[in-house]
Amino acid sequence: MLDCGANVGSFARMAAPVLGPRGKVYCIEPLPDVCAALQLNAAIYQQWADKKGLQVAPVIPVQAGPSMPACLSVRPNVV
After folding, report:
1. What Cα–Cα distance (Å) separates residue 3 from each residue in 6, 19, 30, 45, 66?
2. Other CB atoms within 10 A of residue 64 CB
3. Residues 16-63: pLDDT tens digits?
4. Which pLDDT score, from 0 to 100, does residue 78 have?
5. pLDDT of the residue at 55
6. CA distance 51 to 8
7. From edge to edge, which strands make up the β-sheet containing 69-76?
8. Rounded to whole angstroms, how far apart are CA atoms 76 and 78?
9. Which pLDDT score is estimated for 27?
10. What is the Cα 47 distance to its own chain's centre?
11. What is the pLDDT of residue 79?
12. Where is pLDDT greater, at 53 or 73?
């Protein structure tokens, strides 16, 4: 699943259990401040994901253009 404009990861968190351990959620968030919140939530949800048998991949900042940073979370089986 591709979650464009992932915000803080709420939709990804709901979708991950539905997709199950073999599913993948890819989150893309272009706003740097919101990306920072997405990174924080990924860390907070780790314990929740562990209980569900899901994995949370790191949120990786990427450059989306000359003046627009973005972040990408490639989350196999994640929140």
Report:
1. 5, 13, 12, 17, 23
2. 14
3. 888 888 888 888 877 778 888 888 888 888 888 888 887 777 777 666
4. 47
5. 79
6. 21
7. 2-4, 24-29, 69-76, 59-63
8. 5
9. 82
10. 15
11. 44
12. 53
Handedness of CA 15, 17, 23, 27 (dihedral sign): positive
Alpha-helix residue ranges (DSSP H) falling in 1-79 = 10-19, 32-44, 46-52
Residue 76 has pLDDT above 70, yes or no: no
Hey, what long-range contacts does 14-20 have (CB within 8 A, 24 or more apart)? 16/49, 16/52, 16/54, 16/75, 16/77, 16/78, 16/79, 17/52, 17/54, 19/77, 20/77
Gap between the Cα atoms of 79 and 61, Å rounded = 18
Q: What whole-number distance in Å separates Cα of residue 3 and Cα of residue 47?
A: 22
Q: The tokens 């089986």 sit on which residue?
A: 77
Question: Does this model's pTM top 0.70?
Answer: no
Classify strands 2-4 and 69-76 as parallel, antiparallel or unpaired: unpaired
